[in-house]
UniProtKB/TrEMBL annotation:
GO terms for molecular function: ATP binding; protein kinase activity. This is Protein kinase domain-containing protein. Residues 1-264 form the Protein kinase domain. It comes from Ganoderma sinense ZZ0214-1. SUPFAM superfamilies: Protein kinase-like (PK-like) (SSF56112). Signal peptide: none annotated.
Amino acid sequence: MKVLEGPRPAESLAVPAWLADDLELRRRGITLVECLRPPTVFCTSWFATPQHVVKIVEPDANLKLDIDEAAICEFLQRPGARESPDTNHTIPCDVVHAEKTVLVMPYLPSMKAPPTLDPRWLESFLDLAYQLLEGIDYLHRNRIAHMDICPGNLLAATPREADLDDRLAAGTVYIIDFDRALRLAHAPGTQGPILLPSAQFAPPPGVTHLDPYAWDVHCAGRVLETFLAGKARTDEAAAAAAPWVAERLVLWLKGDERLGGFRS
């Protein structure tokens, strides 16, 4: 969930009156006080327990995309979909049909910053990679391409959040923001290329169309590359002797050889 920076008009930061007064949110004890991403994402007080995030998910006509984020999230939360929490890494959420449709979800720490890596950092890195790919694989098996996999759209549950919400597991990575996601008619391996929408990661030079499933995997490689770069900045000795398995994994996921020899 990307939090915008820089000056913002005060009205774009205010919680809309219809949202603040929504009866279902009030019934749940949710009082929104702060804007995380104008004009659609708001949260309860940092002192609230548990803390919640509410996202307005009405389709954006400016995107000119046939995307129904609420329908995708409802599908991913359907009965039975969370019976295998180790594979479904979609953040648990409730779809509330208020004046506008909103998602109600637990507030979790973002993984935008490189994770703190102890001397067993490779183990932590590979665990992150495994969970991320497991979550993407779950989406793809359900013919959903996220289309905007990036560090800002990954959250991680701590023991505190897991204690407050039995849908969460401590140490688990969760994928958020399905406002670019696509439900596809064809399964992986049979889907053709599409025009890539705007996303946090820019496509390689000259690449405008790609298999959407392949784009998710490429972006997963870029995420891991970002975390490796963060490790290099904080530990030059480790960077100089970076295990080949981590670097090879990143290159394999990015699929550079299939993108014209592109190197980021």
